[in-house]
Queue: 2 jobs
Job 1
Amino acid sequence: METRKRNDKGKAKGKGKRKQKKITAPEPCSSEDVLFKDIVAVLGQAEVDKVLEEGTELDSPFEFHQEVELEVRAIGSNGEGIAVAPDGTKPWAVVVPLTLPGEKIRARIYKSARLHSFADLLEITTPNPALRDDSRVKCKYFGACGGCQYQMLSYETQINLKRDVVVKAYKNYSNLLQSSLPPILSTIASPLEYGYRTKLTPHFEAPPAAARKNPSATSDGKKPDWLAIGFNKIGTHKTMDIEECPIATPVINAALGPARERIIKNIHTYERGVSLIFRDSLDTTPDIDPRTAQQPIDKLSEAFTKQICVTDHKATVRETVGEWIFEYNGGSFFQNNNSVLVPLTDYVRDAIFPLPSATDPSSPSPVTVAVSVVPDTPRPTHLVDTYCGSGLFAITLSPNFEKVAGIELSTESITFATRNARLNGISPDKISFRSGDASDIFSVVGDFPPSHSVVVIDPPRKGCDDAFISLLLKFRPATVVYVSCNVHTQARDVGKILNATADAGEGERYVLQSLRGFDLFPQTAHVESVAVLRLV
Ligand SMILES: C[S@@+](CC[C@H](N)C(=O)[O-])C[C@H]1O[C@@H](n2cnc3c(N)ncnc32)[C@H](O)[C@@H]1O
């Protein structure tokens, strides 16, 4: 993390001199950094430069707990409204959750940082009816719970905002010229707007010592006032009590009540805080023997229609994605919105094997193309799924390839990926998984022909490290599909890949063929993004 001493130029010297504050620039691509870039866009670069030059970027014009009247100018990539300090004050932004551009608000300042303060919303004095309709809100905790930001917006507006996030991310982090970016397509909607989350992780703190010593005080079934089982309150690390969550699936909501009752009854037995897990799963009691599993698995049998809620981090969870069956460990990674996984995996497949263009005269019927440019590359035959988890992309895309290799850090996920391949009847001669750092895969795919290979990249939020990118560039697959839960690190990494090959010869240079967001988390500001890179 970059730090520098504050420029105290022009400040009183000697006695009474203010102690120098250390200015810590946010970690690049962190949510603070993303917010700061949004703030600069609102205040204007020239104004910001002036304040930075003066060295007064930490001198908030507001007192702690001051109430201010503001007009919101923009909505940031993290979902908060960004207002500016009233006329006559220095250029200064105020970040207020749950507010929308054009709205006039009253807010109370609670924290200040570089060129901005954070404030709690007190009142929306003039709402923006073109965007806000509070009757859309489906959750009684909305506005207090930190989970959702967008329930007052139409779903179309949410989708449009998420496209803007992708656009801004590539402008701010890719280090690419606008001319090297394809038109950023509209964000693909989630089929379910509520009731989609297949995983919930509420938490609670340990009881106070007095409650542990006096179990009778908590064993009457009534929830003590000090106990909150739920999620963080907006903008805080304080837990708020949550009895239901409308973005979670009905199966999870049905399990929340009984689980809460058990915890309340036994709370005196807990010595530490706990993070719970609720995962929507198919019934896992009928075991499937991978050695005898046939494809397609008979999903019409009861085993594949009865749903349960898994609440043990170590238990197996089972779900289907179209025709494919997946099992994974309750505590391990799996995408949290099942409804969008067929559209997502189909999209990746269609991006790798583009359909003929609607304007293509050889096409028998008009079809929609998934991509903007279709270079003449040989049909891919080999797939490398990096950061593969329990094999989502490797397995769902496997029919289109002769050979598939996956790699993933979690040995548990790799055990499941291997089992999932067997459950789905894919031969071990065709598909293999190994545990390790993603960059290790390039030492074992030496027999994959790069010109016929696709590398899928789906890393955690921090993106890829430089070692991975340099080995990827050495391997130089014809196609790279980068799926990301953090479009800012994706933009950074895609920029590195394109810039590293910008001066390369024919067939050695990557272009960004298509880019678009996917909405895995409706009602929140989060956006997933898929970038398709091709060698030209
Ligand atoms: C966003 S998830 C994607 C998983 C999978 N593609 C899916 O869609 O289910 C990222 C995965 O990367 C794994 N991971 C994290 N760091 C890694 C690394 N250095 N090398 C390989 N895998 C890593 C995590 O364990 C996690 O399973």
Job 2
Amino acid sequence: MTSPPITLPFAKGHGCENSFLVLPDPDGRLRLTAETTRRLTDSHTGAGADGILRAVRCADDPEAAAMAGAAEWFMDYRNRDGSLGAMCGNGIRLFARFLVDTGLCAPGTLAIATRAGIRRVRVPSRCQDLQGPVSVAMGTPLFPGPDHITITTAGASRPATHVDMGNPHAVVFVNDPADAGDLRTPPTAEPADTYPHGFTTEFVAVRGPGHLALRVHERGVGETRACGTGACAAVAAHRRRTGQTGAADYHVDLLGGRLHIAVLPDGDMELTGPAVITAQGALHLPRTA
Ligand SMILES: N[C@@H](CCC[C@H](N)C(=O)O)C(=O)O
């Protein structure tokens, strides 16, 4: 006799076509392994996505319990390969849209806990059609160095800037994002110890004042249609390279659409873009998974 499968409620959605499965787990009962993550995010064995956002109350997750006084919900982010991630600019916007549209939170500004700390996300209203722009305060970019990094991909080596947006990025400037070539093989970095836990790479072209375009290779995923922390890292590296300071607005074009980044007078960045719920239902997992 075979056991019935485990049934998990889920939503699927995207931010600029960077896609995620949202798994509501309010009381922290779900044990999500790397293997289960890979199975669920694979389009053949699951619903397919770039990553998973498990929605658990901070008070009910040992990893986030210390943040329970400041945030109700913890975004437990998992990359498609099963690795844990700290921050996800598109994911956290979809996460907040999910909490608001399913009635778990009221519209307005939500404090959400992540492995990179607490982020404030603004969801202006509940949307009848489960979509609409969402903004997140991303904090101030850091430049951990070293000053000279080389990124090699598809046989070409180029200088890069190390930017920390709560997760590690290498920003490479190119004439056109297409110059990055085939991104099926992960880029490599020199010095090799720059990124002990891996990195996400942005290939960025300057299109005009306040206007960038990029392609991205994400740590733990591969090439994706968009990356929110990556778009912020690109703006940060561009401002550093050109000596820009003070408040300014930018838009960044990605394969999946456009993200807006406002740099505030204190240097903090606010990221805005679409957050769209595309499906809701139940996922089935064999008991052995
Ligand atoms: N797509 C995300 C970033 C997700 C995490 C990344 N893959 C990592 O491992 O740091 C975004 O929109 O920021």
